[in-house]
Design brief:
Bound molecules: ligand F0G
Number of helices: 15
Largest sheet: 6 strands, mixed
Structural class: alpha/beta
Order of helices and strands: EEEHEHEHEHEHEHEHEHEHHHEHHEHH
Distance between the termini: 73 Å
Strand order of the largest sheet: 4-5-13-10-11-12
Oligomer: single chain
Number of strands: 13
């Protein structure tokens, strides 16, 4: 096996195992104990900047492809592969928007609410951050075929990166479980799309077995390189705040890759002395897919220095199986009941003194309409963050003068059906249905004036 780097390696997150492996291998779980793997670095062997401000200089040289990338602009902080293998298609040109109008509706002070638009990525979701990193690793180790299970966005992003790198891609989706905008992307980008008569959790189980049997490269967020790429969402948030740390990050929770990545990003920045404090994090589940909220709030499951109580998880999942439970929410992107990154997410909650909460579908679609009305729009799962913020403000967990960043994970056009139905069927308080007009100028003018 060729050695590509002497300062990055896989490390098992289980403190009683802690096995390390070379990054030249393709691993998704620890071969010794089966736990999740991290990518870790010997920081003293990497030429790190003394201050985060250093990265701003790369704006001046963005004609260079790696400096243009919103992922690789921060390459020293995810230094697992030589530059010649790094894949980019221009991901991470995202906006942190101060939104005082929405803030006023939510009861938050002017200048305190920010929306991080990850839907502005090339495939329309945050996944591109993770795929840029995962496909770089795949190219580095010479992979030819990749696969994922998906609620839609992972498949769109994977298919786009796969065809741009010349890899074959296979998508596993639950039949009837993904929004058409996303399915259309996977098909358009040439993925082999397999619809399974089951939900995302079934797809996730099958894709792991298929990848192991057929030696296909898995690009779900079980892949620790995905997590490395998604750390950069937080680097860009800090960058847009002039490297100041906000008080809160609010993020929807599905397979829990983002929350895991954000916690790791802040832990590493603090460890390196590049930030002075870590923001708090709120993770928002949709009711109907609330495994994390149940385990964290009701069962009091904690990271516990890496010694997570597996029995609590096993009992919870056994109960889901006994009930033949399948998650259901209008936020199909986060319709997941067995999140693969659960333990890394518990670690992130520990690092960020985090909280977890649940919001209803009604709250999600109303919040989505508000993001559309005052901002650039987002898909339903993304709006769970804003719906969650309403609860946190109402309960006094977040104060009106705290600086809050809601992560808007996917573009509004990913799931137009939810938007159209919300407005046309007057499903909520922000519904804005089209008005029918007779084919007559005077009548049209009368309608517009009314
Ligand atoms: N928001 C959107 C728009 C998503 O597509 C997803 C996940 C999430 C939030 C949840 O993020 O897994 O990091 O907690 N979508 C995956 C997919 C599962 O297959 O596209 P997470």
């Amino acid at each position: 096996m060729p050695k590509f780097t002497d300062h990055a390696y896989y490390e098992c997150i289980n403190p009683d195992c802690g096995s390390r492996f070379d990054c030249g291998q393709t691993l998704f779980k620890c071969p010794d104990c089966g736990e999740l793997l991290d990518i870790r670095y010997d920081w003293d062997k990497i030429p790190l900047p003394a201050k985060l401000e250093y990265f701003a200089k790369r704006w001046a040289t963005r004609d260079a492809r790696l400096d243009f990338s919103g992922v690789w602009r921060f390459r020293e902080l995810l230094d697992f592969c030589p530059d010649e293998h790094k894949v980019t298609i221009g991901e991470g040109q995202t906006i942190l928007q101060q939104n005082d109008q929405l803030g006023a509706e939510l009861g938050i002070s002017p200048g305190r609410l920010y929306l991080q638009y990850e839907g502005l990525n090339p495939s329309g979701s945050f996944k591109d951050n993770g795929m840029a990193a995962a496909f770089s690793h795949a190219k580095m180790v010479g992979i030819e075929s990749c696969a994922c299970a998906s609620t839609g966005n992972t498949s769109a992003s994977m298919a786009m990166y796969a065809h741009s790198c010349g890899l074959k891609s296979t998508v596993f989706i639950g039949a009837g479980r993904i929004a058409f905008g996303k399915l259309s992307q996977a098909m358009d980008y040439g993925a082999h799309t397999i619809q399974i008569l089951g939900d995302f959790d079934d797809c996730m189980r099958h894709v792991q077995d298929v990848c192991a049997r057929l030696k296909i490269y898995l690009v779900n967020s079980l892949n620790p390189f995905r997590i490395e790429g998604q750390k950069t969402i937080m680097f860009r948030v800090l960058e847009q705040f002039g490297w100041q740390v906000p008080d809160w990050i609010v993020v929807p929770g599905g397979n829990l890759g983002n929350s895991s990545a954000f916690g790791k990003a802040f832990f590493e920045l603090k460890e390196l002395g590049l930030i002075a404090r870590i923001p708090r994090m709120a993770i928002v589940n949709a009711s109907g897919a609330e495994t994390l909220a149940d385990l964290f709030n009701k069962k009091k499951l904690r990271w516990n220095k890496g010694r997570v109580d597996q029995e609590i998880i096993d009992d919870y999942y056994a109960d889901l199986t006994a009930k033949d439970f399948s998650p259901h929410t209008c936020a199909s992107a986060i319709e997941i009941s067995r999140p693969v990154n659960l333990k890394k997410c518990l670690r992130a909650l520990d690092i960020c003194n985090g909280v977890v909460l649940t919001v209803s579908d009604e709250e999600i679609i109303d919040s989505k309409a508000q993001v559309g009305k005052y901002g650039l729009g987002c898909e339903p799962a993304s709006a769970a963050s804003v719906a969650g913020l309403k609860h946190l403000l109402g309960d006094g967990v977040i104060g009106p003068d705290e600086t809050v960043v809601c992560i808007l994970t996917g573009h509004a056009l990913k799931d137009p059906d939810v938007t159209v139905n919300y407005h046309k069927e007057k499903q909520g308080q922000f519904s804005n249905p089209p008005v029918e007009a007779p084919n007559d100028l005077e009548q049209i003018i009368k309608l517009i004036k009314s």
